[in-house]
Write a structure and sequence with these properties.
This protein is of the alpha/beta class and 417 residues long. The chain has 14 helices and 19 strands. It folds into two domains: 2-210 and 394-416, Rossmann fold; 223-392, Rossmann fold. Helix 2 packs across helix 14 (395-416), helix 4 packs parallel to helix 5 and helix 10 (322-329) crosses helix 13. The protein starts with a strand and ends with a helix.
């Protein structure tokens, strides 16, 4: 099966998937230069479940796309759900439209007016980007007329934990994928492991996310000089925070406490109280700090001074983990898990990370100990992490690849218009 990969030069690279899942480069198509000569700059509508200020990886990706392309002449708008209808223009000049959600079913907002809003707005823009998973948007995409804007599906992750929901919406999802002009995935492994995308690989584009370069205004702190390890994420089941607390408890009770870095958990969520109680029952509450209300600046400061990032996620719902590249941009190595997603591809075992088996307390405890006591190792992998972000996940490259995709679709649309 074939797919497309946006290479560092902004070109689309045809990729063949062998039965073993090995990617083989076949040929290059310099779509980017053609589209730039045409001067095709247009308007893009992003449709998503929720948007900022509600924090989340999908929201952050959309915001960075808009903030990166708006200064280049693109017009970006976001259609999402909230507790009321509203229209506003954000600081980065993105137009935000919200439609009222009346209730949530299987953790998904029910907002009937979104259906006709998508159909209406699709006739006035050049590209519609649907950010999956968001089942009602699957249906909305099917209502877009043939002469309206092409649909790009951003496949952020599979629906993993909501099995019933996945079964109910699967027919609509397949129809949406069939309708889509392109399907964007953030890493090769996410595409390789997705059974749903198997029949649509010929229209898939691998487009890794990127982040703005970390500021150099503050003094650099080597990972080995830090006295704490960091975990950033919501207190929800698939994040594996309970596994982390148990693994860290092993370290506390088996090793010399005074030499063991502390543990800082940043985030809120429905399991926060349960995790605080678990820390007390494990006898590590004096070593674990829970930070509930941290803004972007707080997170940046904590990352900059940390020893490493720990990402103990247990399910492939964790498809990429932007926080990994945020930590790596500050020269922090990562402890992650061997999920069937892009997580272990972003930070690679033996190079920028230590990758352990998901839901394995003993392995995670051993990894924590290695980064706690091997100063040379933690610094070496931190340096490698920073190099990988600069070469593969930098913001300019991400915006160039995104613009290449959008421009090519605009050119194709005008040819058939």
């Amino acid at each position: 099966m074939d797919a497309w990969y946006l290479s560092r030069r902004g070109v689309w690279t045809n990729i063949s998937y062998s039965r073993s899942g090995v990617l083989v480069l076949l040929e290059f198509y310099d779509i980017f230069m053609v589209s730039m000569k045409e001067g095709k700059v247009g308007s893009v509508l992003h449709v998503c479940k929720v948007y900022l200020p509600t924090q989340g990886g999908v929201q952050t990706v959309i915001q960075r796309i808009c903030a990166g392309l708006n200064p280049r002449g693109w017009s970006s708008s976001v259609l999402t759900t909230a507790d009321r209808d509203s229209t506003s223009v954000l600081e980065d000049k993105t137009q935000l439209r919200t439609v009222r959600s009346f209730l949530e079913l299987f953790s998904m907002p029910i907002a009937p007016s979104l259906l006709w809003q998508v159909r209406k707005l699709a006739s006035t823009c050049d590209i519609v980007c649907v950010h999956y998973p968001f089942p009602i948007a699957d249906v909305a995409a099917l209502l877009i007329g043939r002469k309206s804007a092409p649909v790009v599906v951003y496949w952020h992750s599979e629906i993993v934990s909501q099995k019933l929901s996945s079964l109910l919406v699967r027919p609509f999802t397949k129809l949406m994928l069939a309708k889509a002009a392109k399907v964007v995935v953030s890493s090769p492994p996410l595409l390789t492991h997705s059974k749903m995308l198997h029949a649509y690989r010929h229209k898939c584009v691998v487009l890794p996310f990127g982040i703005p370069q970390a500021s150099d205004s503050k003094e650099y702190i080597a990972p080995s000089e830090s006295n704490y390890m960091l975990m950033i994420g919501r207190h929800v089941p698939y994040k594996g925070i309970d596994v982390l607390l148990k693994a860290y408890s092993r370290c506390v009770h088996q090793l010399v406490k005074c030499d063991l870095p502390g543990l800082v958990l940043v985030g809120n969520g429905p399991l926060l109280s349960e995790h605080q109680t678990l820390a007390k029952s494990l006898g590590i509450s004096d070593r674990v700090r829970f930070v509930v209300d941290a803004d972007d600046q707080d997170v940046d400061t904590l990352l900059r001074a940390s020893r490493c990032l720990i990402l103990p996620s247990t399910l492939p719902s964790e498809a990429f983990a932007l926080v990994q590249i945020e930590a790596m941009a500050h020269g922090r190595p990562v402890i992650n898990t061997n999920l069937s997603s892009g997580v272990p591809w972003v930070a690679r075992d033996g190079r920028e990370a230590i990758t352990v088996t998901a839901d394995d307390v003993e392995e995670l405890s051993a990894a924590i100990q290695r980064f706690a006591y091997d100063c040379e190792l933690v610094d070496q992998r931190g340096e490698a992490a920073e190099r990988r972000v600069k070469s593969e996940f930098n913001y300019t490259l991400f915006c160039d690849r995104t613009e290449a995709l959008y421009s090519a679709l605009c050119v194709k649309g005008s040819d058939h218009g």
